[in-house]
Design a protein that fits this description.
By secondary structure, the chain is of the alpha+beta class. The chain is 27% helix and 36% strand. It is built from 10 helices and 22 strands. The protein has a 6-stranded antiparallel beta barrel. Helix 3 links the parallel strand 2 and strand 3.
């Protein structure tokens, strides 16, 4: 499961191999979900077509029901029927992959400093830390200084997938590297840098940040956290999707929930059910949620003990429901947190300018407060003959010669305005404050 998740993140193109005799298995669905979460194109290789009972058309139908539509049916996914054992149509599969790569314009510069992703790492009793990495661009060579996550080092040796020592590794090459200080994590990005000193400084700085984040106990997205984080960010536009892994007791409940949740989506925010299935929540579900920053939601089902342990370790929120309405309302509230808040002007007082006074600093308006009150620093609009001539802020506020913080209804006061002296007798004043209000989904459709 973890390997599938990492693979989907670092690849440009997924080849989904499905047995024409066994059909679509749970691990097939899992691989599809990981590829979709990573937004990676999928080419399907229908294998074992030489065996009795092979049914490639059924595979196409089953995958079409999962959103993988064959090109010959008007979809976007290439399907190739093959037999790995008999080497049937392997050349066609390779041609299709080359064609897809050309259409995606997949290119890499071999002459730049190398970078890529850590696929796996281990501690060898004789060699020390050994990492398997995929070079995605540039050319990796012995002697290159690099940083990978919290680890760093200098390449002492490179070995290919057969264990043979090589002198360089170009783009799209998986390779084992020796010479690492500390153990990188699978999925870490590695980058070649100028020298060992720079690599060490970057790794140490990252380690410091990592410690600070650990102390702050940062977590994955939660339904409550989603709303508060968006509010703190002032309705930031970055997060627009709410990712959900959905598990239910029966297919009918699952389909009803999927339909209801997807119908909550609007032009500004949407529910993405990245995986929906009948049954208990297992480790695979939690790891998928972790990889895609999703919330796991259960309806009338349970979470396996091992999965619960992994959820705690990965910081994945798991929510259990027995009433459909409660689940839908929680998701609805979280989606409303994704909407940009509405800024509303609320009138707090009204007045008019009755006199003009000259002072050392220029001109002051003698005002009468008809309704509400005015507070120093209030936002204000000045209207003349029904047209707005100024919108700004009350700069100062006086009663007689004393500075005051506010003036109530039916009282006179003196005031001036930020950056504006062209006020006149008879001008109407409208004092207001701006309030941020959470919008409802019905307002964004």
């Amino acid at each position: 499961t973890a390997m599938r998740a990492r693979g989907a993140k670092v690849t440009d193109l997924v080849v989904l191999v499905v047995s024409a005799t066994d059909g679509v298995m749970p691990q097939t669905i899992e691989a599809i979900d990981h590829a979709k979460a990573a937004d990676v194109p999928i080419v399907v290789a229908v294998n074992k077509i030489d065996l009795p009972g092979a049914n490639p058309q059924k595979i196409r139908q089953d995958l079409a029901n999962r959103g993988i539509q064959p090109e010959e049916w008007g979809g976007k996914n290439i399907f190739v029927d093959v037999s790995a054992k008999q080497k049937l149509h392997i050349d066609t599969l390779l041609e299709m992959l080359a064609l897809q790569a050309e259409m995606l314009d997949l290119k890499a510069n071999p002459d730049r400093p190398a970078y890529g992703a850590v696929l796996e790492s281990r501690l060898d009793p004789k060699k020390g830390v050994v990492a398997t990495v995929l070079v995605q661009a540039g050319t990796l060579k012995p002697g290159d200084a690099f940083v990978a996550g919290l680890a760093h080092g200098k390449v002492k040796a490179l070995h290919d997938d057969t264990g043979k020592r090589i002198i360089s590794a170009g783009p799209a090459t998986p390779v084992e590297i020796l010479g690492i200080i500390n153990n990188p994590q699978a999925g870490d990005v590695f980058n070649v840098v100028k020298d060992e000193r720079q690599a060490r400084e970057i790794a140490e700085r990252r380690a410091l940040i990592h410690r600070e984040q650990s102390l702050a106990h940062q977590k994955h997205m939660t339904l409550v956290g989603l709303k508060s984080a968006l509010a703190a960010a002032g309705g930031a536009k970055a997060a627009k999707d709410l990712n959900i892994v959905l598990k239910a007791d029966v297919q009918g409940s699952l389909q009803a929930l999927k339909d209801s949740l997807e119908n909550l989506s609007t032009s500004e925010c949407r529910v993405r059910i990245i995986h929906g299935e009948v049954g208990n929540v297992n480790e695979s579900d939690v790891l998928l949620a972790s990889a895609s920053d999703a919330v796991v939601m259960l309806f009338h089902t349970v979470i396996d003990p091992r999965a619960e342990e992994v959820a705690g370790r990965e910081g994945v929120e798991v929510r259990k429901y027995d009433i459909i309405y409660d689940l839908i309302e929680d998701v609805k509230a979280a989606l409303e947190g994704l909407l940009e808040p509405e800024i509303v002007e609320v009138i707090s007082g009204k007045g008019e300018i009755r006199e003009l006074f000259s002072v050392k600093s220029g001109k002051v308006a003698g005002c009468f407060i008809r309704d509400g009150k005015v507070v120093r620093g209030n936002l204000v609009k000045i209207k003349r003959d029904g047209a707005e001539v100024y919108s700004g802020r009350v700069n100062s506020l006086k009663r007689f010669k004393d500075d005051v913080k506010e003036v109530e209804k039916n009282l006179e006061c003196g005031m001036d305005f930020e950056g504006f002296k062209d006020f006149q007798k008879g001008d109407q004043l409208e004092f207001f404050v701006k309030e941020t209000r959470t919008r409802r989904l019905s307002q964004s459709r």
